Structure of Iron-sulfur cluster carrier protein:
Amino acid sequence: MSITREQVLDCLKEIKDPSGKDIVEAGLVRALNVDGDAVRFVMEVASPEPYLPIKAEAEEKLAALGAAKVSIVMTAHSKPAAPPDLKPNRKPEPTGPEKIPGIDRIIAVASGKGGVGKSTVAANLACALAAEGRRVGMLDADVYGPSQPRMLGVSGRPQSPDGKLILPLRNYGVTMMSIGLMTNDDQAVVWRGPMLMGALQQMLSQVQWGALDVLIVDLPPGTGDVQMTLAQKAHLDGAIVVSTPQDVALLDARKGIDMFNQMKTPIIGMIENMSTHICSNCGFEEHVFGHGGVVAEAEKLGVPLLAEIPLHLDIRLASDGGAPIVVSKPDSAQAQAFRKVAKSLVAAGKA
Ligand SMILES: Nc1ncnc2c1ncn2[C@@H]1O[C@H](COP(=O)(O)OP(=O)(O)OP(=O)(O)O)[C@@H](O)[C@H]1O
């Protein structure tokens, strides 16, 4: 049964806090989310114990209202900020990028332009590294078009039994978390700066990644807030820049490389995607988007060219169908192109 936000609020207003005010008026109910018969909210309280009976009462009343799933997370008030320390010559607190406990390396997969196949490359690379026996994580940070859930065939909302740590999902040996799993399908999310930073920070530090050899981060295209925030919050071990051979894509890829250089993130290399088209009927090879552009660019910029991935129907069918080609057709030439990159990264101690 579907219930409305108003019904939920009316129901919660019947519950009194210790001061006698109703809990909605007292400002205890935060971040209320009503989705069909699921109700979630945060109760912001000074200390949880005295409020446990109120939480139980809310759960009972909401269940009686028809809510099949009720999740109430109790959080303590945030501590008041410490007064500024104005003593001269005080060493600044370290605020730079930090290593995330349990994660040995972080590799960002980036592109200057959208639609060049960055997510396809990231998904196949993650699966290929898992096939090499590496412990692999995938953080889909493409806030504008999160596609890893679809590509890695993962769905459902990640659970958080203790209300603090989020349990990631897993498929094909890849532990994954996506911003797409935290929002509703078909719901356009307008991410503003602070929200974006909060969500990214949460995915880095509140997801129970476990021990990982490498975390692949699928970045949104371009050079925006997410890239900056990521580089500020986490120590990035390297970036792989994906581009098609056209001049326009290359122009944007160059901007991406420049951004990583400025952020002092080492460029592991470039990947030319949709390099040549091989007809799935006759095997005829043609250069739809030109050829060799990325090789020349990589040479000019002094970064390695890691692979030239052909434009092939099987690659699209596989990743759009929820099983990347490395998993669905591991012996195909297309899958081997990705596996070669994974092997070389492992051999070079980069993944
Ligand atoms: N080498 C390839 N051969 C055939 N199809 C491909 C290839 N690479 C990617 N595609 C297809 O192109 C489309 C776009 O790819 P993908 O989503 O990976 O791009 P993207 O760069 O991550 O895009 P965005 O920046 O919008 O997230 C997808 O349908 C994908 O299956």
